[in-house]
Design brief:
Elements lengths: L1 H7 L11 H29 L4 H10 L5 H12 L8 H17 L5 H15 L10 H5 L7
Helix pairs in contact: 2-5, 2-6, 3-4, 5-6
């Protein structure tokens, strides 16, 4: 089956028992959601403290935390454009399920919990169908007006 799976993605992993693939997806999406919240906070902090958010993107792209998500999402976030690649409502659902998985395994996840609250706030403002990066609007205090 590996050759068939290799056509579908960049790499295949055998994760053991049934259900582990879903768990891995939740863990990855929990990390992604937490990163998006921290990234959004950083963009807001740069802007409010008189730094150029665009320069922050340039600096991040050169450093140890450079990553495709920041490079891809950052420019559109600065423009207030949130065409959905991964809708916020799906990101928040995965955050909720990951937190539940954490509870089942006695893993405290305060960063993920705080991030989930920001996604929940965005959903309550009617932003659930936009890209999950729209959480940036909530963190900068304009939720829904942009």
């Amino acid at each position: 089956m590996v050759p068939a799976f290799d056509v579908l993605g960049k790499k295949s992993f055998f994760l053991g028992e049934m259900g582990n693939g879903a768990k891995m997806k939740l863990v990855v999406n929990m990390i992604m959601g937490s990163m998006m919240n921290a990234f959004s906070e950083g963009l807001c902090l740069a802007d409010k403290s008189g730094l150029s958010p665009q320069t922050l993107l340039d600096v991040l792209d050169l450093g140890a935390i450079a990553n495709p998500m920041f490079k891809m999402k950052g420019p559109s976030m600065l423009q207030g454009s949130y065409n959905p690649a991964f809708p916020l409502k799906h990101q928040q659902k995965d955050m909720r399920l990951a937190l539940s998985l954490g509870d089942e395994n006695a893993v405290s996840m305060p960063v993920a919990a705080a991030s989930n609250e920001a996604f929940k706030k965005a959903r309550s403002l009617g932003l659930g169908d936009l890209d999950f990066s729209v959480v940036h609007e909530v963190l900068k205090g304009t939720g829904g007006s942009g």
